[in-house]
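WARN no homologs supplied; continuing
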Amino acid sequence: MDVEAANRAARGCALGKTIQSILDDLKPEAAYFASYDGEHTAFLSLEIKDASQMSAIAEPWLLAFKAKIELHPARYSGHGEGGCRYW
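OK structure emitted
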């Protein structure tokens, strides 16, 4: 997240509410927050069934925090035969 945009939201007491609203919509399996490369960072584990979902995942972060977005699709090998055939 852009440091200035995130800090502005924090000073206005909107940071937590905005993040919670985004997480409520995305329903991640896990969410972690840290500093990475000098910026406020969110690491989310999400189930993405189709590439068309990626813009809906990124857009709330872009609009609220001018966030830089990196999406790294991965496959979990525990998804039965369908997941294992790709390994």
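The chain has a mean pLDDT of 84.
OK
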